[in-house]
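Entry for the shared binder. Reason: the reviewer on the internal report wants the predicted structure included alongside the sequence.
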Amino acid sequence: MLLTAQTTFRSEDPRQEALNQMEAAKLHPYSTLLDSHTADHRKLFDRVSLEVHSDDTAGEAEVNAEPIGTSRGYVGIFNLLLNGCSLIG
């Protein structure tokens, strides 16, 4: 199954852009599409690390050296989740 989607945020004609992307995707085997998709996301997700310290008396995990319970920690998590929305195409 192939799925394409667009919004007016990136395209003046999101329906046509999604149809164009679908036609382009149909020219490639699934393995090529999967490899491309994985490589695109790996570039974003390999930038972030998560460390959980068992000797941490507060029991907090840290994202980007900021405790999860802090506002900067939450920003780091939201940034990680939004990476998938950052890809063009």
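Summary line for the report: The longest strand covers residues 50-52.
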